[in-house]
Write a structure and sequence with these properties.
Immunoglobulin-like; five-stranded mixed sheet; 171 residues; 10 strands; globular; 2 helices; three-stranded antiparallel sheet; mainly beta; 46% strand
């Protein structure tokens, strides 16, 4: 009986493993539209900044095959698991070499608060960003991946599907 109580106490006092703190809510594509939001410094990115996007965006397609189209966004939504305190995490996007420096890993910090969801997207705003190949979005805590979502960026695959779903947003 004493061993059982000691074991139970150890379990209750042990910190929650990092992987158990963040969960994937969804992933997909957001139809092309004009990007809105404040530009904030993000030195870990090729552009040197990210855009804090508007609240309320939803995935128009729950797809992971992404054609290179102007202003098309894709990414993932995460949240904290119940009982987890606010977390400052690193969002990481890996992709084939991009831009003049051949960047393959871009990162920025994000704060996920209990009861909220965090949406992180990549939007094709510049031609040099449209790099076909495997892309991965991840949430890391202290260098440990908690959530990873793979995408495949293509030059043409899926354009018709996107145009059909996103007709109202295309000009």
């Amino acid at each position: 009986m004493i061993l059982s109580r000691a074991f139970l106490s150890l379990l209750l006092l042990s910190p929650v493993p990092a992987a158990a703190q963040v969960r994937l809510v969804g992933a997909g594509i957001v139809c092309p539209r004009e990007s809105r939001g404040e530009l904030v410094p993000a030195p870990g990115t090729e552009a040197g900044h990210i855009r804090r996007i508007e609240e309320g965006l939803i995935f128009d397609l729950p797809d992971r095959i992404v054609p290179t189209m102007d202003d098309l966004s894709f990414g993932f939504r995460t949240a904290l698991k119940p009982g987890t305190p606010t977390q400052t995490v690193t969002v990481v996007v890996t992709h084939p070499p991009m831009g003049p420096r051949g960047v393959e890993r871009e990162e920025w910090t994000d704060v996920i608060e209990p009861g909220t969801q965090s949406l992180n997207l990549f939007t094709f705003e510049e031609d040099y960003e449209k790099v076909p190949g495997p892309w991965t979005f991840a949430i890391e805590l202290d260098g440990v991946p908690l959530v990873e979502v793979p995408f495949e960026v293509t030059e043409a695959d899926g354009r018709g599907r996107i145009e059909q779903v996103c007709f109202q947003f295309l000009s």
